[in-house]
Design brief:
Strand content: 15-25%
Distance between the termini: 35 Å
Helix content: 40-55%
Mean pLDDT: 87
Structural class: alpha/beta
GO biological process, one term: thiamine biosynthetic process
Protein name: Thiamine monophosphate synthase
GO molecular function: thiamine-phosphate diphosphorylase activity
CATH superfamily of one domain: Aldolase class I
Keywords: Thiamine biosynthesis
Pfam families: TMP-TENI (PF02581)
Largest sheet: 6 strands, parallel
Number of helices: 7
CATH topology of one domain: TIM Barrel
Length: 163
């Protein structure tokens, strides 16, 4: 099995539209968990509440079986309804959420940030973890060039001194 250095982790971020037609998302999640994924972020932005909740419940059975966290992207209601480990959102949404501190006591909250200042503010508002993006070019951000590893290295160094 592939071993990561130090305390690094691999989280699977879903997009069911990218899966080969011969598989389904739950089968892929099961394989990833079996191979050692450290967690799953369910990121299916096009699903309505009920469909996301239904899919989340099915995936939670798998993540619970492997004792890894399930994080719901962009939908705090579904995250709370299915008793997910966490909820992930963008910085502006997190900043404008009422009762951040109370929510962060009930469920782990992750925030996507694109500037060091956003990271510092998100941490002060109670975020449990941060995702700095985007480092590489991706179909999720068509037309936007990735910031590269140099950005990430600088970002981490600045954050270590500011937090």
């Amino acid at each position: 099995m592939f071993n990561l250095k130090e305390d690094k982790k691999i989280y699977v971020v879903t997009n069911r539209h990218l899966i080969d037609k011969s598989s389904n998302l739950c089968e892929v999640i099961e394989k990833c968990a079996f191979k050692g994924a450290d967690g799953v972020i369910l990121r299916e932005k096009d699903l309505e509440n009920e469909a996301l909740k239904h899919l989340g419940e099915k995936i939670k059975i798998i993540t619970d079986k492997y004792n890894i966290p399930l994080i719901i992207n962009g939908n705090i209601k579904v995250a709370l309804d299915i008793n997910a480990y966490g909820f992930h959102t963008g910085f502006e949404n997190f900043k404008n959420m009422k009762g951040n501190e109370t929510i962060c006591e009930k469920i782990a909250v992750g925030v996507s940030v694109h500037k060091v200042e956003e990271a510092v503010e998100a941490e002060k508002l109670g975020a449990n973890y941060l995702l700095a993006g985007h480092i590489f070019e991706t179909d999720c951000k068509l037309g936007l060039k990735g910031r590269g590893m140099g950005f990430l290295e600088k970002y981490v160094k600045v954050l270590l001194y500011q937090l």
